[in-house]
Specification:
The complex is a heterodimer of chains A (247) and B (237).
Chain A lengths: L2 E7 L8 E7 L8 H14 L22 E2 L2 E2 L21 E5 L8 E3 L2 E2 L2 H10 L19 H11 L6 H5 L6 H12 L2 H4 L2 H14 L10 H5 L7 H16 L1
Parallel strand pairs in A: 1-5
Antiparallel strand pairs in A: 1-2, 3-4, 3-5, 6-7
Chain B lengths: L3 H4 L1 H31 L1 H10 L4 H31 L17 H4 L1 H20 L3 H5 L14 H9 L2 H28 L5 H33 L11
The complex binds protoporphyrin IX containing FE (HEM) and FE2/S2 (inorganic) cluster.
Amino acid sequence: MNLTLKIWRQKDAKSKGGFETFKVEDVSPDTSFLEMLDILNNDLIHEGKEPIVFDHDCREGICGMCSLHINGFAHGPDTEITTCQLHMRKFKDGDTITIEPWRSSAFPVIKDLAVDRSAFDKILQAGGFVSVNTGGVPDANSIPIPKKDADESMDAAACIGCGACVATCKNGSAMLFVAARVSSLAKLPQGKVEGARRAKAMVAKMDELGFGSCTNTQACESQCPKLISISHIARLNREFLKAKFRD
Amino acid sequence: MGNFLTSSSIGKKFVMSISGCFLLLFLIFHMVMNATAVISPEAYNVICAFLGANWYAVAGTAVLALGVLVHFLYALILTFQNWKARGGVKRYAVTKKEDSVSWSSKNMFVLGCIIVVGLIVHLYNFWYNMMFVELVGQHQNAMGFAPTDGASLIMYHFASIVWVIVYLVWFVAIWFHLTHGMWSMMQTVGWNNKIWLKRLKVIANVLSTLIMLGFAVTVIVYYLKSVGFDFFGLISW
Ligand code: HEM
Ligand code: FES
């Protein structure tokens, strides 16, 4: 496949940045999207030019490091996948592909296509945990948990914190991420006890860091590689409002 | 507790939801009231007289105005904050609408602005010629009708095809706003889950359609009456 790539280049967080056009030739349809960028970077290095910076790590859809807004979609034009799981067979020979960094004021661009997602860590530090006294390991059956609750908690816990929800939301809202974390803990007896404090602390941090509010467009859910449902957002709203009205 | 309604994102959305729900309830009441004008203009005028410049009707109007104002102000604040959160002027060069995302949900503010413009025109057409005329102590509006003669005022406006079209466009905008708003307001207060989401969407679509059809029927019946169609004697006033 021969492709034209329009890629966002930006020297550092402060510079303005703009699109640069590149050609890649003879790419196999079985190449992954990130391998295609590797090939381009290899060429650039051979030509003595600076390679394009983009985030990645596991390349198997579990770490949440890869990002990229490709032809108008977070993680590219396919559903239920991360960018590292996207393959060139999703595109046609001769296509022009526009690759942009994720846009959200809480995710500033560091360089080229890499954005700073440490805002998510800060939200987790604010309340995405269970404060336990780590004693001996209790017997797994000592706390009975209904299957339905365990399943729902696990579904929410599938979130890999990639930030596609924020990137795709027209409001740059982190509600799906926060909801997944709040929900996965709220559904378990160990997490439930701190539910009110957690919801308030995480939402307060989310607001402070400049994420937007949720207008229930469902765009996040449609682009989430782990298909986290907005029903978790309903639970977060419920937990938060209940906690506030009780105060 | 109080300040989370002005400071936190979910608190602000809660205010949007409650004020939207209040406006929705008013809309249903207004639609039913209008529909009586189709059945009997006299009955409609009795309601108009009842809702004239009395303390309770004026108080109701004031509360309603407050509801619109709160909903509109919060819409302005939230929409601006959300625009900034997405990156302000640093936006994507290419965006596409995801298949599962409704058009209305992405255009609530634009739809709301159309609703406001329509509302101002509508208040001038009706409220200004009815309750306002009474409030300033006059007994006749510019068209020469008594301020409680709502039915004649409806006929006066909807004999004009231009007004008919303007109002129908307005109704379509409200319909779009409500198809999203009605389930969104439940989700915002937390009354939603995977099963109810589908049900709420159906309820939202059906109810918005019924409400807006109710309004449209009144307008269309009055227009057809004005051009002499008498519905085969079925609507025989
Ligand atoms: C006929 C009058 C109106 C009714 C019945 C109505 C109803 C609603 C409802 C039920 C919601 C859902 C609340 C939620 O998502 O929690 C909503 C949201 C909204 N409305 Fe209205 N509304 C009306 C007029 C307006 C006006 C005049 C504006 C002004 C621009 C406006 C702008 C918005 C916006 C921006 C949202 C937020 C969407 C969201 O956050 O999901 N609406 N409205
Ligand atoms: S690189 Fe780990 S999820 Fe894509």
